């Protein structure tokens, strides 16, 4: 609780300061608890020992009075009176003798002789019940000791009332307490030095970790971050190294992306410039050549425009991270039929047969435009990278949770070593053929991003020379 309050007061408190406070509290609390407990025990032992001593001494005196007949003899034995005075002085107290008539016959202070004392303690003592009490407020002990008429009958003939001051004992306890407080200060001081050194030793691996992190923050991410002093620092450094590894991969990917974007955008511009310079350098070029060159320029401009559109689509999806999906219930069968109808002219040019196999009617919560783009990319790629007179089969199925779209083709296939890279931006397995078919290298990246935005999954199965199958799995009900 105390540490929680400290942390609430200062949220920026360091771990080292927290450790020092915690260790000091853990070490100091027992010291300060033990001190009053031990002093209290010491004080009680002194008082108990004093009262026991008084009781023993007074019993001896009582027995002497019984044997000498002190209560009935006249005049009374001066030796016993003197001994009684000595014992009273020794205990820094007072001794009063009360006879059977409750009259005080002897008083070491000589103040109450002849007076009547019928206090509760005296009455109980005549009844055979001795009292032995300590008054902590007034700091004195009070005892009652019976005085018997003779040693045979055991008949109580008088009562000895003894009061003894505990002031000297309490002064002794105060002196011990003073010395104990000084000792406690010394213990806490030594403990503070040990705690500071221990906290410094404990914090050393964390300070080294901080130094390495500072270097990494300054840009030096090549030096591995390692601290094996504790399991905790090992776990932290492992997590940090994993994070740095991912950051390096992201940074490398960013550099590659920028390089690829620059290259992809520059290529059409270079072609346009070459064609334009060729036309400018020709004198009296025929109209047919102008038309041919202008047609080529138009193709390059269209290619540049498609690259820019795809890049903008990716940027928008990266920025929104799925937040801009326009979810509605869509008939997936009708959507796929519309996509195939739109792509049949492209398939017809390559004499590729498009086959749609619908196992069941499917309605799902999707963004129709984005999903249409993703599925169109898969089918269009299957057509473009197919054999002459090949086929593309699109299969739709569903269970109680998901619907599945399989796009299989009889195309050229993808070598196994390239399959894990096909979803990367601008990655092409066959760059020459991609440019011939007008591909930008962004289609599959966009497709995968859209499917992930729908909380779905995209799997690839392919064998070189035997075709490729993409399987899309998307939940029937979208949960935001």
Q: What is the topological layout?
A:
Elements: H1 2-9, H2 15-68, H3 78-90, E1 93-99, E2 104-107, H4 120-126, E3 132-135, E4 140-148, E5 156-165, H5 167-217, H6 231-281, H7 287-320, E6 328-331, H8 332-349, E7 353-358, E8 363-366, H9 368-384, E9 391-398, E10 402-409, H10 431-437, H11 443-453, E11 457-463, E12 467-475
Helix pairs in contact: 2-3, 2-5, 6-7, 7-11, 8-9, 9-11
Radius of gyration: 52 Å
Shape: rod-shaped
Overall structural class, as computed from helix and strand content, comes to alpha+beta
Largest sheet: 5 strands, antiparallel
- CATH architecture label of the largest domain: 2-Layer Sandwich
Number of helices: 11
Average of per-residue pLDDT values: 81
CATH class of the largest domain: Alpha Beta
| β-sheet strand percentage | 15-25%
How many beta-strand segments?
Answer: 12
CATH fold descriptor of the largest domain: Beta-Lactamase
What is the number of independent domains?
3
Low-confidence stretches: 6-10, 431-438
What string, H for helix and E for strand, traces the elements in order? HHHEEHEEEHHHEHEEHEEHHEE
- Helix content bin: 55-70%
CATH superfamily of the largest domain: PAS domain
**Distance N terminus to C terminus?**
40 Å
Major sheet: order of its strands?
Answer: 2-1-5-4-3
Characterise the protein shown here:
- This protein is an alpha+beta fold and 480 residues long.
- It is built from 11 helices and 12 strands.
- The protein has 3 domains: 16-172, PAS domain (Beta-Lactamase, 2-Layer Sandwich), CATH 3.30.450.20; 231-317, Helix Hairpins; 323-475, Heat Shock Protein 90 (2-Layer Sandwich), CATH 3.30.565.
- The strands form 3 sheets. The chain has a 5-stranded antiparallel β-sheet with strand order 2-1-5-4-3, sandwiched between helices. It has a 5-stranded mixed β-sheet with strand order 7-9-10-12-11, with helices on one face. The protein has a two-stranded antiparallel sheet with strand order 6-8.
- Helix 2 (15-68) runs antiparallel to helix 3 and helix 7 runs parallel beside helix 11 (443-453).
- The longest helix has 54 residues, at 15-68.
- It is rod-shaped.
- The two termini are 40 Å apart.
- Residues 6-10 and 431-438 have low confidence and may be disordered.
- It is an enzyme of class 2 (transferase).
- GO terms for molecular function: phosphoprotein phosphatase activity; phosphorelay sensor kinase activity.
């Amino acid at each position: 609780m105390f540490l929680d309050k400290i942390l609430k007061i200062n949220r920026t408190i360091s771990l080292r300061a927290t450790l020092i406070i915690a260790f000091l509290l853990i070490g100091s609390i027992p010291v300060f608890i033990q001190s009053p407990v031990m002093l209290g025990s010491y004080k009680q032992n002194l008082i108990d020992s004093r009262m026991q001593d008084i009781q023993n001494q007074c019993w001896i005196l009582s027995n002497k009075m019984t044997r000498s007949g002190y209560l009935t003899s006249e005049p009374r034995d001066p030796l016993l009176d003197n001994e009684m005075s000595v014992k009273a002085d020794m205990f820094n107290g007072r001794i009063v003798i009360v006879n059977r008539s409750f009259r005080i016959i002897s008083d070491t202070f000589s103040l109450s002789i002849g007076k009547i004392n019928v206090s509760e303690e005296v009455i109980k003592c005549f009844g055979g019940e001795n009292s032995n009490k300590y008054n902590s407020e007034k700091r004195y002990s009070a005892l009652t000791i019976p005085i018997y008429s003779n040693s045979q009958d055991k008949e109580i003939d008088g009562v000895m009332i003894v009061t003894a001051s505990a002031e000297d004992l309490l002064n002794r306890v105060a002196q011990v307490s003073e010395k104990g407080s000084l000792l406690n200060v010394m213990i806490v001081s030594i403990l503070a030095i040990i705690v500071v050194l221990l906290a410094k030793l404990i914090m050393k691996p964390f300070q080294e970790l901080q130094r390495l992190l500072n270097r990494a923050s300054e840009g030096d991410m090549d030096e591995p971050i390692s601290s094996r002093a504790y399991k905790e620092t090992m776990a932290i450094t492992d997590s940090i190294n994993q994070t740095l590894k991912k950051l390096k991969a992201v940074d490398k990917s960013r550099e590659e992306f920028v390089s690829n974007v620059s290259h992809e955008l520059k290529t059409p511009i270079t072609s346009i410039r070459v064609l334009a310079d060729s036309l400018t350098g020709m004198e009296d070029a025929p109209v047919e050549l102008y038309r041919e060159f202008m047609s080529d320029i138009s193709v390059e401009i269209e290619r540049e425009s498609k690259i820019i559109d795809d890049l903008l689509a990716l940027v928008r999806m990266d920025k929104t991270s799925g937040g801009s999906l326009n979810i509605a219930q869509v008939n997936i069968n009708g959507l796929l039929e519309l996509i195939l109808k739109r792509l049949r002219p492209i398939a017809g040019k390559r004499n590729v047969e498009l086959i749609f196999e619908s196992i069941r009617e499917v309605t799902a919560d999707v963004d129709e435009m984005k999903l249409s783009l993703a599925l169109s990319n898969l089918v269009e790629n299957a057509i473009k990278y197919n054999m002459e007179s090949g086929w593309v089969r699109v299969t739709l199925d569903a269970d109680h949770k998901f619907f599945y779209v399989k796009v299989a083709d009889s195309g050229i296939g993808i070598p196994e070593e390239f399959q894990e890279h096909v979803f990367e931006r601008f990655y092409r397995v066959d760059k020459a053929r991609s440019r011939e078919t007008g591909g930008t290298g962004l289609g599959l990246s966009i497709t995968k991003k859209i499917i992930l935005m729908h909380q779905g999954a995209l799997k690839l199965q392919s064998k070189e020379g035997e075709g490729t199958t993409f399987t899309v799995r998307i939940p029937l009900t979208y949960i935001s």
